[in-house]
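User: Second chain of the day. Same drill as before.
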Amino acid sequence: MAWPQTMVAVGVACGVGILLSPAVLGSAGTDVLLAAGLPLSFLAAGGVAQVLRPGHLVGHRLLAVAVSHLSAIVCAVAADLLASRPWVAVAINWVSATLFALGFVALLDLLARYPTGNSAWPLVRRVVQAAAFVAFVLTTLSVLGSLSMPSVLNLEAGANPLHLPAVEALSPAASAVALFPILGLGLRLARYRSASALDRAQMRWPLTAAFAVAVGLVTTSLVETTLGATVETALFVIAAAALPASFLIGLLRHTEQAERLAALEKSRARLAAVADTERRRIERDLHDGAQQQLLALLAQVKLARTRLGDGEGDVDDTLSDISEGIRQVHRDLRELAQKIHPAVLTDCGLGEAVRSALVRLPLRTRLVVDPRMEGPSFSPDRGGSRLLPRSGGIGERHEARRDDDGTGPSLLLRRPARGNCQ
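Assistant: Same format as last time:
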């Protein structure tokens, strides 16, 4: 079984044991259920993340936070049940306190890695490792300095057989481990400034939830005085459950948008590859086909010129071959140029395309554009005019006719003008 699946199984087993705690501990079991509410929400968020985004490190850290705290609660319950064996109970309570502290370290790592799953700076990993070491040391000192049996659930279980008066003053230091998530929020805010717009959008979810939890902590005394300790605890647990939900929502949205961007990049790469392949094909066909044929025709023209200079009489066959060769080159070029349009035709329409072509003609020409024309219409102009070859434009009408003064052909093109292409 893979490590994430193992953590889910352990978390579910711990959750089942905690649900049975009221039957074992009586009234204290209700406090155990309230204490397990937040870790269970982390377990649910981590399980959903593993199903929808398997292998993502954010999902792993969600499970790590849940399993650490749930295991700590189960160990605390087991130590209370074994209170008659002080040495066994204190050893289990030490394991419970260590797991509980490591859960805060996992939350610190989660905040540092969110939303991509990678640390923003190499130093962050060392900070997390140092935090784990500090948590272990502070927890050990707290267990050794406590007069009573240490318990993460504050269950009364008698005197501590491992009590060392020399470290008694350091016993409250273990509570500093609960401040590790604040360090994680600081790292998150530092990363927020340099993050991309996509990452920032997903960072706002846990930051907003953390702000709501902070407001709940500040107003704890007021709510407890007004509504009672039990109601205050229940409300705080419900509000805190929004934190893992915010991590999950941000993770799903981030990965979804990242997948869309990756798919878009792949699509662009495929289009670029297709265009490059087509360009190379055209270059190859031009080089191997039309270019070689034109060179052969040029050689035939030189040969015909030589024969004319020498007075030979079989030049007609050579000229016929040249004429047929030109027709073949023309057919090949038309086939090659199929579906390839000039940029001016694509951008500005037939009017500008014809205008640019007329400039290269040796005849004096005039182009008239009629913007009133709507829809396709092709009709010859009376008086000897003729239609130009079909161009396939929509909403275009074009005619060629000779001016009355006989100065040259006049081209009438009726089509609405496009944008700035005038």
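Residues 373-408, 413-420 have pLDDT under 50 and may be disordered.

User: Great, on to the next one.
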